[in-house]
Design brief:
By secondary structure, this protein is an alpha/beta fold. The protein is built from 13 helices and 22 strands. Strands 1, 2, 3, 4, 5, 6 and 17 form a seven-stranded mixed beta sheet that branches.
Length: 453
């Protein structure tokens, strides 16, 4: 910022107060920038308000269904347990309110101005607020408007809901059809199944969780079927009809099905419409995403974008890293900081959960050719005593020429918790010999990681 600069109302104006926008705003303000963030809904974004945080709370609630059943073999007698959806729903929403307040306080404590209005670019450095009667200017602009659930364009699509509305249902639907094969579909399938719904998943392809190792997704499919979830593959919506209190869904390749609720979990769409990006000359990609370079900069020098709106990696921790790197690069006064988007761990909070980092076996064979695969297929100790015939699978992919671990995948209880530490090892480039040399913690599921054969 050396030299004579034109005067603007703000050094940074952020559109969207989700995970990436909040982190960028806070860090930029800590660097001394005058920052404003516009958010037309609630501070916290998808993850905090209607995504991973409330969903994980529902996952915890759903786990009690099996825990209460398993407790009998551990000596516990629990008389007539019952579940009240509205109690869980309201407590979850109450905690969302708390987090919304905490995020708001964080911004305000750092001197960030929060503008609870829609913001639209009306010029290179100009932003119109709300109804357009007020405009402000900013030296730098950051788009962090996130993404929204995709809704298929079929007859009667307005009769379905998305994950946004799932947290606000008045009651658990007796029969629910979930469209999609990704993490959101499988997570909500597990949740609603444990809460007593008859769950059917339809997927236009023939595989669940396409980005994960096939053996892990196949294991989840087997376990889900054993739990009573139905699957219809190679099925695309033809339409949804309201018939009394029920919905009749027609699809390709399968007979019609009658359900009480249809949940769309068919991907997410970047929120770029109506932001005035064309006015500012910002380039968009084929899916409507904002095209950025490795420093999150668009084709317009002073306009940046982070998070789901760029459609790079749609994960909250990635958006946070991108927001931090942007603020440090533009306002930190040091060397530019770029986020490394390789070897990113991820998890699916299904029942049981699944987690992975690095390459799948197929990816490793295609890229490296010579690989070694180590795995452990076992029944967790708790499941043995509970009488639950549900097996975990851990898998390690190793570059045979260097012994370096290039990928780990696992499905089983607490897999995401175990994976976080394992991901550090893969990111650091450790070898299979390093794992073999590490003493096991016994008895744990995690010890399988250092005992793989």
């Amino acid at each position: 910022m050396a030299g004579k600069q034109p005067e603007y109302d703000y050094d940074l104006f952020v559109i969207g107060a989700g995970s990436g926008g909040v982190r960028a705003s806070r860090v930029a303000a800590a660097h001394g920038a005058r920052v404003a963030v516009a958010e037309e809904y609630r501070v916290g974004g998808t993850c905090v308000i209607r995504g991973c945080v409330p969903k994980k709370m529902l996952v915890y609630g759903a786990h009690f269904a099996e825990d209460l059943e398993d407790a009998k073999n551990f000596g516990w007698t629990i008389e007539k347990p019952s579940f009240d959806w509205q109690v869980l729903r309201d407590n979850v929403l109450k905690d969302v309110d708390r987090l919304n307040g905490a995020y708001t306080d964080t911004l305000e404590n750092h001197g960030v101005e929060i503008i609870h209005e829609r913001a639209v670019l009306t010029g290179p450095h100009e932003i119109a607020l709300g109804d357009g009667k007020r405009t402000v200017t900013a030296r730098h602009i950051l788009i962090a408007s996130g993404a929204r659930p995709h809704v298929p364009d079929c007859h009667g699509h307005e009769l379905g809901i998305t994950s946004n509305e799932a947290f606000h249902l008045d009651a658990i639907p007796p029969r629910i059809l979930i469209a999609g094969g990704g993490y959101i579909a499988n997570e909500f399938a597990g949740i609603f199944n444990e809460f007593g719904s008859k769950v059917t998943i339809i997927n236009r392809g023939d595989q669940l969780l396409r980005g994960y190792d096939r053996s892990l997704s196949d294991r989840l499919l087997q376990i889900s079927i054993a739990k009573g979830i139905d699957f219809r593959f190679n099925a695309e919506f033809r339409g949804i009809e309201q018939k009394g209190d029920c919905l009749t869904v027609s699809m390709t390749g399968h007979e019609d099905i009658e359900v009480d609720c249809v949940l769309f979990a068919t991907g997410r769409v970047p929120n770029t419409e109506g932001l005035g990006l064309d006015t500012a000359g910002v380039e968009l990609g084929e899916k409507g995403e904002i095209v950025v370079d490795r420093f999150s900069k668009t084709n317009v020098d002073h306009i940046y974008a982070v998070g789901d709106v760029t459609n790079r990696v749609q994960l909250t921790p990635v958006a946070i890293r991108e927001g931090q790197a942007f603020a440090d690069t533009v306002f930190g006064g040091g060397n530019p900081v770029a986020v490394d988007h390789t070897v990113i761990p991820s998890a699916v909070f299904s029942h049981p959960p699944l987690a992975a980092v690095g390459m799948t076996e197929g990816e490793a064979r295609n890229k490296l050719g010579n690989v070694k695969v180590y795995q452990s297929d076992f029944r967790p100790m708790k499941n043995v005593l509970a009488g639950r015939n549900e097996r975990s699978l851990y898998k390690m992919i190793v570059d045979a020429d260097t012994d370096r671990i290039v990928g780990i995948g696992m499905i089983g209880p607490d897999s995401p918790e175990i994976m976080q530490a394992a991901a550090v090892a893969v990111k650091a480039g450790l070898t299979k010999a390093d794992f073999d040399a590490t003493v096991a913690i016994h008895p744990t599921m995690a010890e399988e990681m250092v005992l793989l054969k």
